[in-house]
Design a protein that fits this description.
By secondary structure, the chain is mainly alpha-helical. The chain folds into two domains: about 1-55, Arc Repressor Mutant, subunit A; about 60-185, Tetracycline Repressor, domain 2 (Orthogonal Bundle). The chain contains nine helices and two strands; from the N terminus they run ααααααααββα. The protein has a two-stranded antiparallel ribbon with strand order 1-2. It is elongated, with a radius of gyration of 19 Å.
Length: about 190
């Protein structure tokens, strides 16, 4: 492989990474309907480069979801020795949903379900299955709670925390208290 070929490949890889970073940023701030040309512009590349890397919106949405799942996996890995890792993860995801406006975007698109939601929930389910079992064994979560309900739990926590504060206390903390009371063994 020649030096010029390696430089071109390195440049192509850098452009692809800039596109992914731009997509994560814009999908997070504006939703999945953001014009793809805006992603290309933020990444500093042409539309042709965008479409060479990602032939359609579905492809780039899938890549962005993988980035988010990798982040969830990283956090859960940091909490591998904690019995409450499951609870920490759902709070982290709820906070991310709130900070990105994701809850409002999901509500706005609820009549247009996408297969990507299933892929993301499936990924989160896989990542959180073991931490859930640890939480159950430690008596933090009811034995009959099924991991398949994780998407509902995250939305409940996010939705309950749309009002940022209740007095001096963040509503997400209140919502978590209510949720953990419901998840706690009886």
């Amino acid at each position: 492989m020649s030096l010029s070929t390696r430089i071109v490949r390195k440049d192509a890889k850098e452009r692809r990474e800039r596109l992914i970073v731009a997509a994560v940023d814009l999908f997070g701030s504006e939703g999945f309907d953001v014009p793809l040309e805006k992603i290309a512009s933020l990444a500093g590349v042409s539309r042709t480069t965008l479409y060479r890397n990602f032939p359609d919106r579905e492809t780039i949405i899938g890549i962005v979801q993988r980035v988010h799942l990798e982040r969830v996996q990283e956090f859960v890995g940091q909490w591998a020795d904690r019995d409450d890792a499951f609870l920490l993860a759902i709070v982290m995801m709820a906070e991310k949903t709130l900070s990105s406006g994701g809850f409002e975007k999901l509500l706005a698109s609820r009549n247009n379900p996408e297969a990507h939601t299933e892929v993301f929930v499936s990924g989160v389910t896989s990542i959180l299955s073991e931490p859930l079992e640890r939480a159950k064994a430690a008596g933090l979560v009811r034995k009959d709670f099924d991991i398949s309900q994780i998407g509902v739990v995250i939305l409940m926590l996010s939705g309950g925390a749309l009002a940022r504060t209740n007095g001096d206390r963040p509503v997400i903390d209140i919502a978590l208290d209510l949720l953990t009371a419901g998840l706690a063994p009886r």
